[in-house]
Design a protein that fits this description.
932 residues, mainly alpha, elongated, Pentatricopeptide repeat protein
């Protein structure tokens, strides 16, 4: 057969990067930068969107072989992997876009869907492997297999595919959708025999695992008997039984694996140590500790002798269960079986103690480990530093970090990220920035995690200009390795708010087969969750799973956070349970996210139930979880309960951080318990934690609430003496305190002090001052402040309008009408507070029936009343029921209030809220694990 003319030359040189090879063969006049670093900078600095729509059509070049349907292969539709299309739609029967991979398989059904068997990454590596087979002039094997399913041809193709992943992916394709028929199962078992005979035991185990997983436990005995029958023609007793045992272990069938182990003992074959260790791990995972001890005793009596790995596996399993005493006993038992505890053994125990909140015991374990001659690893220190940072004890974490060089250990990126994250959570952005500069000085390359920690810290707690400057310098400096450039770029787009561009870049990178990690997906999922786009977050998650990426704990936490932000706590709890059933890495952070969500929805019972359930499941709370509980209880007014939690937290060894102290101090201040708040502030100093601006703002606000302005000012002056600069919130608290005391002169003096400190008043400052003047019936002064607000370029908000409207309703009628006209001219937009103001003034004017009448009209348009609205209406109803004669206002005043109420009612009538149901969200939540 003559050579076929290529439609488009394509030589796939690198098996692991098929898509990227295609893109380098584009038209010569289209300039493409080969430098990924330059490409990412261009994306970021110019905010360009990448596009990669390639239409590639080519056949493979064959020599001296006629392959019928294999002679021309069209890949145009396959390489254009748009994840919004290819993953969800299957080609119809007779369509020209039928999947080309079916031409290599003996099962040519019209409804065959290879995408239901392999993911996009597996698809790409199979394509590359098949193209290499044809280029190496081995196409006759493909033709023969296309004509008839033969296990020997299947094994030959799997060997030619070279890589284990590609071979196993093709094996799954070869089984097709008839994998559960008896004939196909037997043929595949023969293929597993042949693979084992050719010393491809790992592929044989993969094949057996696949078959067992598809036929299920009910038919697994058929597979065992067929594999055992006549196995001597291909492999030994040990080989076949080891393959079967590992096959059952791979699919999690522990009881069947134990049966194979028993058969091994019967025929006199000793199982491999690694297989028994895996079986032990599986039994520990499902909590079958009785079988674990029986298996361990069987090993001691009949072999194989336990190794360090076996002991470490058992110690890890009992630590996860909370059995630290048993774990310690196993550690002391190791030398009796010529196994010395190694760094992994000690790391497991140190990690377990840290999880339990016993960081001091973990440090003691570290010291005993060093004295015993076992050198700790970087993971040892990372575990302890992480625990100290979670407890808020960043000072001790830094001391441990600085002592690493003396032990001959060089900090790496992971450890620096751990300490940096601790600084950010403690709101010490300056220390985090210094650590970042130290990383660059020492030549430690940052990664995408570093980027997210620093950018997130500047975004939450730093100034906006610092955040923008850091963002630009971080990218332009080019200090990231090429492998994380795309992760960083996607994260940058997410932090910059360009989510559509981030999704587009993610899809393009996946299409080209370029290097990307779970961090990029987590950045996008987290950004969508923060933006309230939980449906988009779940779509990103589905793409992640379809591309073969395993979700991390950050993935789960971001999905939960998106639901909690919308108040969808019931769905969030359901999602949490589903994740736990699927074996996802659920940690205490997920519970903390839900706990915070319950408190924000004022569901105290739900929060306390979740706290109890968290402990019952063996997930012991850390410092962050304790702090979230303290903060929620304090804001709910349950300050005594919050203080009990605070004492419990301290008693078990957690060091409360500034946020925990501030939350509890705020709770005391809100309840008027200033003495207790001040005592706690002094205790905070004794513990080595310096009060920050938030602490002083809380105390100043507490004094202002009680009208103790002198104490508030003294606290304000103390801030200056210790070197803390007040912020806009500090000044607004003082201005509000003086306005409540009707001391507008002192309030104006505080505003002048703001200017001298280089802080301009914000919308809150103006609103507070206007409310103060309205309270003392000086409406002219209030409108002067309003004019100043507009002149400063600040747009009035609803609070501004409602403040002025409340003053107008109490003012002289003639002036009130003039001021109302001016207010309407400025674009007054009412809300529920506006309605409450007007309804309350109807009651004050002695016409509660008007309040009830307008309330009925508002109900007819489904207006959303709040708690204050119902209180006002209850008052109006009681006034109607009482026989006390009401003092009615003038007819003109009543007419004026009616006029304002009509304007408000008319606005609400014309702008009825339409409840839009997101039809996709419930389906996404219900079906989010379909593709796993």
């Amino acid at each position: 057969m003559s050579n076929i003319t290529l439609h488009s030359q394509l030589w796939l040189q690198t098996p692991l990067s098929p898509i990227s090879s295609i893109h380098h063969q584009r038209k010569p006049n289209l300039r493409v930068s080969d430098d990924p670093r330059r490409r990412c900078r261009r994306i970021i600095l110019r905010q360009l969107r990448m596009s990669a729509k390639f239409h590639v059509t080519f056949p493979f070049l064959l020599r001296n072989h006629s392959l019928n349907s294999l002679t021309l292969i069209t890949l145009s539709h396959s390489f254009n992997l748009r994840f919004t299309h290819s993953h969800t739609s299957a080609p119809s029967s007779g369509s020209q876009t039928s999947d080309y991979l079916t031409q290599f398989l003996p099962f040519m059904y019209s409804n065959f869907k290879p995408f239901s068997l392999i993911n996009p990454r597996e698809r790409r590596i199979v394509v590359v492997g098949l193209s290499n087979i044809i280029k190496k002039e081995q196409g006759f094997v493909l033709k023969a297999f296309n004509l008839r399913f033969c296990p020997f041809f299947l094994v030959k193709i799997m060997k030619l595919l070279e890589t284990r992943d590609a071979a196993f992916a093709f094996f799954k394709l070869a089984l097709g959708e008839n994998h559960d028929s008896e004939e196909i199962v037997q043929v595949c078992c023969i293929a597993a025999h042949v693979l084992a005979a050719q010393r491809l035991q790992l592929l044989a185990q993969d094949a057996v695992s696949w078959v067992i997983g598809r036929v299920g436990a009910s038919r697994s005995k058929e597979v065992v008997e067929f594999m055992w029958k006549n196995h001597a023609q291909y492999e030994s007793d040990f080989s076949v039984l080891n393959t079967l045992m590992r096959g059952f272990l791979n699919v999690g069938m522990n009881s069947e694996a134990l049966d194979i182990l028993l058969r091994m003992r019967v025929v006199g074959v000793r199982p491999s140590l690694s297989a028994v260790t895996i079986l032990t791990r599986l039994l520990l995972r499902i909590g079958d500790y009785g079988s674990v001890w029986k298996l361990f005793k069987d090993m001691l009596c009949k072999g194989p002798r336990p190794s360090n790995i076996t002991f470490n596996m058992m110690i890890c399993g009992f630590c996860r269960r909370g059995g630290l005493v048993v774990a310690e006993s196993l550690l002391h038992l190791m030398p009796k079986f010529r196994c010395n505890p190694d760094v992994y053994t000690h790391n497991i125990l140190i990690h377990a103690y840290c999880i339990k909140g016993k960081t001091s015991v973990a440090v003691e374990r570290l010291n005993s480990m060093i004295k015993g001659g076992c050198r700790p690893s970087i993971s040892t220190f990372n575990t302890i530093v992480h625990a100290l940072c979670r407890e808020g004890n960043v000072i001790e974490a830094r001391k441990l970090f600085d002592g690493l060089p003396e032990m001959g250990i060089t900090p790496n990126t992971v450890l620096c990220n751990t300490l940096m994250d601790g600084y950010v959570k403690a709101r010490e952005i300056g220390q985090a920035s210094m650590l970042y500069e130290e990383m660059k000085t020492k030549g430690i390359s940052p990664d995408c995690v570093t980027f997210n920690i620093m950018v997130g810290g500047h975004y939450k707690y730093g100034r906006k200009e610092d955040w923008n400057r850091f963002l630009e310098n971080l990218i332009v400096s080019g200090c990231f390795p090429d492998c994380s450039l795309y992760d960083v770029t996607i994260s940058w787009l997410c932090w910059a708010g360009m989510l559509d561009e981030a999704m587009k870049l993610l899809q393009d990178v996946l299409e080209k087969g370029l290097t990307i990690s779970t961090v990029a997906f987590n950045s996008l999922i987290g950004a969508y969750s923060r933006a309230g786009l939980e449906d988009k977050a779940f779509e990103s998650y589905q793409i992640m799973v379809k591309c073969g990426f395993a979700p991390s704990s950050s993935t789960c936490n971001s999905l939960l956070m998106g639901l909690c932000r919308k108040g969808r706590l019931q769905e969030a709890m359901g999602l949490l349970y589903r994740m736990m059933e699927k074996g996802f890495p659920i940690n205490k952070v997920a519970y903390t996210v839900l706990l915070d969500g319950y408190f924000k929805m004022n569901d105290l019972d739900g929060a306390q139930f979740l706290w109890k359930e968290m402990k019952e499941r063996g997930i012991y709370p850390d410092a962050v979880a304790f702090t979230a509980l303290i903060d929620g209880l304090s804001k709910a007014g349950m300050v005594e309960e919050a203080y009990e939690v605070f004492l419990e937290m301290s008693a078990i060894g957690f060091v409360p951080n500034n946020f925990a102290y501030n939350s509890l101090i705020g709770g005391f201040c809100n309840c008027g318990m200033m003495t207790e708040a001040l005592k706690l502030e002094k205790e905070m100093r004794l513990e080595g934690l310096l009060p920050d601006t938030f602490t002083f703002n809380i105390l100043i606000d507490g004094f202002c609430r009680q009208g103790k302005m002198k104490s508030a000012v003294d606290t304000f002056l103390l801030m200056h003496r210790i070197g803390l600069m007040p912020d806009i919130f500090t000044f607004n608290i003082l201005v509000g305190g003086y306005c409540k005391a009707f001391d507008m002169v002192s309030a104006n003096q505080i505003v002048n002090k703001m200017y001298t400190c280089g802080i301009d008043p914000d919308i809150t400052t103006y609103n507070i001052r206007m409310h103060g003047y309205c309270s003392i019936r000086k409406m002219n002064r209030a409108f002067i402040i309003l004019d100043e607000l507009v002149s400063a370029g600040i747009v009035p908000n609803t609070v501004t309008y409602n403040t002025m409207l409340g003053g107008i309703c109490s003012d002289i009628l003639d002036r009130a009408m003039i001021l109302t006209a001016k207010l309407l001219k400025m674009g007054f937009i009412p809300n529920v507070t506006t309605t409450n103001i007007l309804l309350s003034h109807f009651c004050k004017q002695g016409i509660p029936e008007k309040a009830l009448l307008w309330a009925q009209k508002l109900r007819e348009i489904h207006f959303g009343f709040d708690e204050i609205s119902y209180r006002i209406l209850d008052q109006a109803y009681r006034l109607m029921q009482n026989d006390v004669e009401l003092v009615r206002g003038t007819y003109q005043k009543i007419l004026f209030l009616d006029f304002l109420m009509y304007i408000t009612f008319d606005y609400f009538s014309r702008n009825k809220p339409h409840k839009v149901e997101n039809e996709n969200s419930p389906k996404l939540i219900e079906n989010q694990f379909v593709d796993l």
